[in-house]
Amino acid sequence: MKEITTTEFNNEVLAGGKVILDFYSTECPPCEALASKFEDLSKLYGNDIKFLKIYRQQNRDLANKLGVKSSPTLLFFNEGKETGERLSGGIRRSDIIHNLDLMLSESRREVIKTQIKPFVSEYDVIILGAGPGGLTAGLYLCQSKINTVLVDIALPGGQVSTTHEVSNYPGFIEPQAGYLLSHNMSEQTKLCGTVYKVAVDVTKVDLIKKEIVIDDFETIKAKKIVIATGTTPNSTGATGEKGLKGKGISYCATCDAKFFDNKEVVVIGGGNSAVEESDFISRFASKVTIVHQFDKFTANKKAQDKIFANPKMNIIFNSEPRAFIKDGDKMITEIENLLTGVHTKLVSDGVFIFIGMKPNIELFRSELELDQWGYIKADENMQTSLSDIYAVGDVISKKYRQITTAVADGTIAAMAIAKELN
Ligand SMILES: Cc1cc2nc3c(=O)[nH]c(=O)nc-3n(C[C@H](O)[C@H](O)[C@H](O)COP(=O)(O)OP(=O)(O)OC[C@H]3O[C@@H](n4cnc5c(N)ncnc54)[C@H](O)[C@@H]3O)c2cc1C
Fold first, then answer.
1. What pLDDT, on the 0 to 100 scale, is given for residue 367?
2. Which residues have a Cβ under 8 Å from the Cβ of 345 and sit 6 or more positions away?
3. I want to staple 130 with a disulfide (CB 3.0 to 4.6 A). Which of 19, 152, 164, 171 is the partner?
4. Angstrom distance (rounded) from CA 269 to CA 292
């Protein structure tokens, strides 16, 4: 592995051969998360592919010329020409390998695969998921001198890191940018000494043996596991939803309704949460248009009566969203009437989607006792139906899912574990 500067770029990268180039920065947590994977892969692939690093801050002109806009960004070159897919953000080892393999022959790839040596590491506690629940558990365990590893398929921070502003987390007078709040939570836990393995593929979780496999070759064993994997909102499937998450589309009325004082919003959904949250949003908004796919709501009767009596409500049945578009400060929701096929555009200041959440439990669903909606049942110590397995935050069966409640769960689990292990 070699560090280069702009003046060496032509010779080292464009002159020929196979190259992977890492544009990195300092004070960049995703760059830190990448560094060990980059080094490790350079040992495996280094005979075939040149591993180069370049410090973006001091080579800005080159970065701009190549259109590199964030750190880290990985670029791949074959015989002087850029190839494969650029990778940036929380870069997984498997994505790097995929791009490296594209430059090699099949036989060479097979030889390299045989050189990957599986290994086992051991900790007292594995925390799966580095959102507020997992990060808080990590902080408390670390402060109790318990050897803990935090494992996340993405970068640390959880849902908070993609939240525009958080105004209900105690201790801050002004609303905090979500990414900053989650960054501070993560740094606090990391500085304490908790080991991070983030942007990894979690390929196997065995709750009975208390071990997990990451990136297919590292087995991590522990005395206890804390599950803090959170939830994923169900998606409408309409175009534009993914990109506008947190930038015009919200999934949390408690968190965001207050930003729509005297404004107009569109709500997608018709079950209990859509109807109850619409009522809550109407305390702030001047108009709430609810779009529901069926010809009646599926929410409880009391909540429906409230909605029908609320003069701020505009209800559109038999319709589904097809596209979300940002137009300046406004959101355009294109809906289709399922009976007539006619498309209509609704202009509003923001969109809320309440069509259910799903707990992230795919890898261990069958091993745990769940509630009727698929959330993990946990007792007052956050212990699940399996001994030594705890669960905290949004992934557990509970009524209110907020940062404060996830943080509280993480605290309780860590204190209960610390008491047992000490
Ligand atoms: C758009 C939006 C805005 C919000 N705004 C607010 C707000 O203003 N105030 C507030 O209090 N709450 C807000 N919330 C709710 C709040 O974000 C959640 O209650 C909180 O983040 C839950 O924390 P958690 O640690 O349980 O899970 P999450 O924050 O969801 O974190 C779970 C973590 O687990 C990781 N993970 C998932 N699967 C795996 C796996 N198999 N292995 C390893 N890791 C895995 C994920 O990558 C993620 O990092 C908002 C939610 C959303 C969606």
1. 85
2. 332, 333, 334, 335
3. 152
4. 5
Residue 253 has what pLDDT? 87
State which ligand 1 atom lies nearest to the alpha carbon of 401. 19
Best mutation site among 127, 169, 174, 229 for ligand 1 pocket (most ligand atoms within 8 Å of CB) = 229
Q: Of residues 256, 279, 394, 409, which has the active-site annotation?
A: 256
Angle at 267 between CA 262 and CA 269, to 5 degrees: 160
- Low pLDDT (below 50) residues in the chain: none
Distance CA 162, CA 192 (A): 24
179-199 pLDDT per residue, tens? 999 999 999 999 999 999 999
Long-range contacts of 38-42 (CB under 8 A, 24+ apart): 38/1, 38/96, 39/1, 40/93, 41/93, 41/96, 41/97, 41/100, 42/1
127/392 Cα distance (integer angstroms): 10
Residue 7 CA: distances (Å) to CA of 14, 62, 374, 421? 12, 9, 57, 55
- Ligand 1 pocket: which of 94, 128, 149, 159 to mutate (most atoms <8 Å of CB)? 159
In 3D space, the residue among 151, 42, 161 whose CA is nearest the CA of residue 97 turns out to be 42
Please choose, from the candidates 250, 324, 316, 311, the residue with its C-alpha nearest in 3D space to the C-alpha of residue 282. Answer: 311
Stated pTM of the model = 0.86
255, 279, 349, 409: the active-site residue: 255
Structure token digits, residue 232: 């994923």
The pLDDT tens digits for 208-265 are: 999 999 999 999 999 999 999 999 989 999 999 989 987 899 888 877 888 899 999 9
> From CA 121, how far away is CA 155, in angstroms rounded?
21
Which ligand 1 atom is the nearest neighbour of the CA of 410? 25
